[in-house]
Structure formats: C-alpha cells, structure tokens
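ESCALATION

Customer reports they have been waiting on this structure for their group meeting. Please prioritize. Original submission:
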Amino acid sequence: MKGKAQPAPFPKFQKTVLANGVRVVSETIPSVRSVSVGIWVFTGSRDEAASESGISHFIEHMVFKGTAHRRMHQIAQRMEAVGGYLNAFTGKEYTCYYARALDEHLDRAVDTVCDLVLHPTFPERELEKEKDVVLEEMKMYEDTPEDFVFDRFEAALYGRHPMGRPVIGFPETVTSFTREQLFHYLHTHYTPDRMVVAVAGHVDHDRLVRYVEKAFARAERGPAAFERQPVNGYAPTHLVEERAMHQAHLVIGLPAYDVHHPRRAALSVLNTILGGGMSSRLNQNIREKYGYCYNIYSFLNLHSDTGDFGVYMGTDETKVERARKLIFRELDRLAQHPVSRRTLTQAVSQVKGSIMLGLESMGSRMMRLGRQELYYGRYFSLDEILEQVDAVTREDVLEVAQELFDPERFSSAVLLPGKPR
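Update from on-call: job pushed to the front of the queue and completed.
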C-alpha cells in the first residue's frame, strides 16, 4: 500500500494520506523523548440510531477485551510493560484510542492502538460483563449532579436529535447490544477514510508511515460515507427535575457557532471574559460579591455543524432564581456595552496562555493534531491560532454577545434537591 506524502506547510508538521484514505499526521518535537499516538475515528454518539444509543461508547470499551492478536490481559500489559499508557474516549462526533510511550517504543504504540481498532473480537463471554460495567458507569454519572445536569441540558437543547442523547446511552439500549450489532457498526463506521493517525513527540514521520502502512495493509475503503442528520428546528426548552441531593444545579445555554464559524475566536474570548476563571465576571459578581455559589463557569462546545454556549452553576435551591437573574444581567452587560480595552487584553492573554501551556504536553499536541485533521483537513500552526485570537476586537466581542444573548432563546436544565420523580 503506497501513500503519497504531501508537502509539509510547517517545519515540524507532516501529513501523508495512504491509498485507502487513512490520514497520518505528525508533529515532531526533537527536544522530548516521548511520543503520544492516537487513532481518531470520525464517528460518535450523534451517528447512532435511537436503538443503538451508546454503541460507540460500548465498542470503545469492548475493543480492550481482546483482538485477533492479543487477549485482554496482554492488551492491558502491552504499554504498561514499557512504562507507557493506553486509553480511549468517546465523544459526540469522534472516538479516540491513544497511547503514550518513550520514542523507542513508537512501533509498539502504533501497533497496539491499530490492533484495537482493526482487529477486535468482541468475545461473547465478555459482552454481558461489560454491559454491567457500563451500567455502573451510568450510575456513577447519575450520582454526580454536575455531570448529569449537562446530559439534561443537552436533551433540552437538541431534543430528539442524536446530539441530545448521552454518549453513554441508556440502560435499555446498552443491555440489548449483540455481538453482531457491534461488528456491523464497526464495519460501517470504522472505515479507513474516516480515520486519522496523529502522533506528537520525538517521531520520524517516514518511520511512522511505514508502521501505519503495515498495520493497515489489509484495510480497504468502507461503504459509502453515511450522512449525519443535521441539527435543525431549535426550540427553547426548560427541564426541571428533583433528585436526592443537597444542592441545586443549573445550566442555561443556547445554540452557538460551529468549528468553522469565522467568529469562533471572538466567542472564545467572550467565554473567557464571562466565566473563564477566578477573575471572570460570573465568578467575581455572583460568587465573590453575593456568595451565591462555590462553582460557576461558562462553557463553549464547537461541533462540525453546530455548537452550544452556556453557563453552569451549583447553588442553594432558595437562590436559583436570584442567581439566574444575575447570570442574565451579566449576559446583558456584554450585549449592551463594549468591554474595556484592559478586559479585552487580559482575556486575549488568558486564551493565548492557555493554548501555549497546553502545548507543553505531547498528549495535548496529539489531541490538537487529531481534531484539526478531522474538522479542517489541515494543520493550524501555533502562530496562526494566536494571530486569530490577537485579532479579536472589543467590537467583535460586543457583536457576538448581541447576536447570541437573546434571553428568549435560552434553554435550561435544573436539578433540585428533593425526592426523585
């Protein structure tokens, strides 16, 4: 299998597309002795039918139970035996399997993650046991109100669309999965043209490509690409539930920009000003001034064709409505008045600093490479990213706030202390 290397637009970045569509991207950092290896599959919970809810996450679990080449205990020991690390996670739009190791074990790391993705056996005897494991994971999330309220918020925001379902699925769907279903989903979604192998660290790109070519030697392009269901027809929704707990939890938010929107950098800066740390307006004016909460922050999620922006807060149930009004007051301030030059400068510096500090980790660099290739099909250098953030103006922040912060368009999810319904 021959791949054609594309000219690297930046000194330390290289990209090769194999004949079957697998994209291999690397960022070479000569000063380190480690590598972070990830296989990104451009499929996640939004690509599941209602009856399949949670299957992407369940497959992520099950690939560790055995492959055509290794048993479960051999997979567990494969990277740890050389001081490395192996793990995976599932999101709304992608699944990532990754390993961290010394550079001398690059071949082992690539071989291990490729084996998981390409040759799982889904042993029948492990299937039922892993269903119980996932059910326990669900209980863990339900016992963590700050996590659970976000699932309810996404249900309010996206309704019946797959984006509104939890990544982990539901008890009734997970317990129904069969081995045949797992293989069918793998065959239709885990195809080479939807995969990216991303590596950051002390890596030689040509050597990496040889390892990936060997691993994917028999992998062929899959069926025609499936079409994702677009997110349409938003209607604000408000959900309130009672649960056995001591604190109320609130999330308010609304649809925002996707990963391609030209104002995504401005929204990131706005997010930092509003709720991005101890000096943010939400923290200073709701926690410090009024003492209404211990934890409050704003958040921003960007997806391929949609996104969402909102605020989370945990507070006493008697203060929920007062705190909600204070949150909307801060949103209105941003939509009515330009932020000061000093505030903008501080927020831009905070965003840039967070980006640059993240690059201290090879794992973070690998994650950045993988996401960039999935969503943009290209590499953004650090200078490009920082230039985009530096270009944000006070007027940009004001215009984004005015465009988004209509109180009538917000959805909400609230968990209140009490008896479960």
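Sent to customer with the following note: The CA atoms of residues 272 and 289 lie 19 Å apart.
Escalation resolved.
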